[in-house]
UniProtKB/TrEMBL annotation:
The active site is at Y444 (proton donor/acceptor). GO terms for biological process: lipid biosynthetic process. It comes from the Bacteria. Its cofactor is FAD. It holds the Pfam family FAD-oxidase_C. InterPro entries: Alkyl-DHAP_Synthase, FAD-bd_oxidored_4_C, FAD-bd_PCMH, FAD-bd_PCMH-like_sf, FAD-bd_PCMH_sub1, FAD-bd_PCMH_sub2, FAD-linked_Oxase-like_C, Oxid_FAD_bind_N. Keywords: FAD, Flavoprotein, Oxidoreductase. Belongs to the FAD-binding oxidoreductase/transferase type 4 family. PROSITE patterns: FAD_PCMH. The record marks R307 as: Important for enzyme activity. Residues 93-272 form the FAD-binding PCMH-type domain. This is FAD-binding oxidoreductase. Gene3D superfamilies: 3.30.300.330, 3.30.465.10, 3.30.70.3450, Uridine Diphospho-n-acetylenolpyruvylglucosamine Reductase, domain 2, Vanillyl-alcohol Oxidase, Chain A, domain 4. It comes from Actinomadura chibensis.
């Protein structure tokens, strides 16, 4: 992973010249003043660990699995939100962990947690490091270690009768797919961060993948979990569903490292689909397209992938950088994907086409769908290229019931546009629906603007306005990115004072010393 950006440095590509010109003409984007410094020049703060901490950690995991050199610390600094990238690109590693610890087993995780609880050292579980909500930057100023789970990367077992698999948390998604694929199975979980994010991170942050319509969110896939806490082990899930009290698995899903370290995840798996087919549709407006998607979600048939870009996103052609600024046509582009047995795919595809035609859709054939499928993991690389070109680019997301979606869409767009325009960096605000349910949908916004004098501060103001708008319009503060530190205050508003107190009580029981991801997720008492 590129320390100052996304993914495989070999795949980075500059923006085409016409796009740079368009950004200049449309948004006043000027070339970035300075490229990121070399990694070796990035300074990390002095370690806050006490004498003997590192040696004690090494006795648990082995000398080779504790690192406190600058490179290891920089590579575990914050996550991959745009403010995270802007800070690290400016050489700011002030949020670096004091050391990186790589446990190999559940027992080692337990021992590390007990040791750290005794010594007052905070612990931040680290999967793929792709958090975009400040989930890897604890608050409070105490010494902390990044607990990197990459050594726990096995497919432990596959139960072909139940169609479940036991996975270790440090498996990255492509590795998990490869191991399962070799046995004829798939998870069907393909978030945009697929290339780097981990199984533990998916569970800890309630991730949702691009094929959520067909396979479900990651939290829908999880049937059992093992969690290490400073107070011992939680083993949860002995049947797919149960009436034995509240489902404590749901307390762990989305717990973002604040309640324990997930050391094992049992997930539902499905046979690798025989056929995968993608196609495009055009709708006259976002409203018309959203109504068509709602029809499929409520009355069927449901494809595996179902997404709809608004007019601006369709016009910009964000799905394909080579198309940016080109003629991608008017209206709103929808992409549908169908997966499964070939005969079933053909049948569902035909029924969906009837429903979409009846809802006013115009079929565009396989081209736009296949283009989307081909470039679906490219957007993070495009963000790096935009930052290099002096532009600002960031995303945020929410979800609501269908009846609230139109007002939520308008409220968030207005908040982002008004705030950034007032600050002198008028943005382009684009949106798509990419996770659809019978009762509602998520809205995913992409914002591009000039960077201005202080892009981190500009964005903080715009993001605050957007988060206020989300809560005021009845949306949730996150459909799939999670809470972290960035969304915690709005999450507190969403669950109310009693909800926050319940969460604090649970944390106090499993983490009495408060060493697990301090400041992440759990609202403080007021
Ligand atoms: C470019 C980009 C695109 C993205 N696209 C999507 C998307 O399409 N869908 C989506 O859902 N998300 C998306 N995300 C957000 C992010 O990838 C997800 O939240 C993902 O689930 C994080 O996985 P990770 O392994 O990188 O976790 P990390 O970033 O390492 O950790 C996330 C949080 O979980 C905690 N954690 C990690 N592992 C464990 C564990 N084993 N036990 C307990 N706590 C743990 C961490 O402390 C942190 O608070 C995107 C992010 C980026 C940068």
């Amino acid at each position: 992973m590129l320390w100052s950006g996304w993914g495989d440095p070999g795949r980075a590509a500059p923006l085409p010249e016409p796009v740079v010109r368009l950004l200049h003409d449309l948004l006043g984007v000027r070339p970035a003043e300075a490229p990121p410094p070399p990694l070796a020049d990035v300074a990390v703060p002095a370690s806050r660990l006490a004498a003997g901490d590192l040696a004690a950690l090494a006795r648990i995991v082995g000398d080779r699995h504790v690192a406190d050199d600058a490179e290891a610390r920089v590579r575990h600094t914050r996550g991959k939100s745009t403010p995270d990238l802007l800070r690290i690109r400016a050489g700011d590693a002030s949020a670096a962990p004091d050391a990186v610890v790589l446990p190999g087993t559940h027992e080692e995780v337990l021992d590390v947690l007990r040791l750290c609880a005794g010594r007052g050292v905070a612990v931040v579980p680290f999967g793929g490091g792709t958090s975009v909500v400040g989930g890897l930057a604890p608050e409070g100023g105490a010494a902390f270690v990044a607990l990197d789970l990459r050594r726990m990367d096995a497919l432990v077992s596959l139960d072909e009768v139940s169609r479940t698999a036991v996975l270790q948390p440090g498996l990255r998604a492509p590795e998990a797919e490869a191991l399962l694929g070799a046995r004829g199975y798939t998870l069907g979980h393909f978030p945009q961060s697929y290339e780097w994010a981990s199984i533990g991170g998916f569970a800890a942050a309630r991730s949702s993948g691009q094929a959520s319509a067909g396979y479900g969110r990651f939290d829908d896939l999880v049937v059992a979990l093992t969690v290490a806490t400073p107070e011992g082990t939680l083993d949860l899930g002995r049947a797919p569903k149960s009436a034995a009290g509240p489902d404590l698995r749901q307390l762990v899903l989305g717990s973002e490292g604040a309640l324990g370290v997930i050391t094992s995840v049992t997930v539902r798996v499905r046979p690798v689909p025989e056929a995968r087919e993608y196609e495009g549709w055009r709708f006259a407006s976002f409203d018309a397209g959203a109504a068509a998607l709602r029809g499929l979600a409520q009355d069927g048939p449901m494809p595996a992938v179902l997404r709809l870009s608004d007019e601006t996103e369709t016009m910009v052609g964000l799905a394909d950088p080579s198309e940016i600024g080109g003629d991608s046509g008017a209206g709103c582009l929808a992409v549908l994907g169908f997966e499964g047995a070939a005969e079933r795919v053909a049948e569902v595809r035909a029924r969906a086409a009837d429903a979409l035609r009846a809802a006013g859709g115009e079929p565009l054939g396989a081209g736009p769908g296949e283009k989307w499928e081909h470039g679906r993991f490219d957007a993070p690389y495009l963000r790096d290229a935009l930052l290099d070109a002096g532009a600002f680019a960031e995303t945020l997301e929410t979800a609501a019931f269908w009846s609230d979606v139109p007002a939520l869409y308008e409220a968030v767009r207005t908040a982002l546009t008004a705030t950034l325009s007032e600050l002198g960096t008028p943005p382009l605000v684009m949106c798509h629906i990419s996770h659809v349910y019978a009762s509602g949908a998520s809205l995913y916004f992409t914002v591009v603007s000039a960077q201005g004098a202080d892009p981190v501060a500009h964005w903080a103001r715009a993001k605050r306005a957007a988060c206020d708008a989300i809560i005021d319009a009845g949306g949730t503060i996150s459909h799939h990115h999670g809470v972290g530190t960035d969304h915690r205050d709005w999450y507190a508003r969403e669950i109310g004072p009693l909800g926050a107190a319940v969460l604090r009580a649970v944390k106090e029981r499993v983490d009495p010393s408060g060493i697990l991801n301090p400041g992440v997720l759990v609202p403080p008492a007021v």
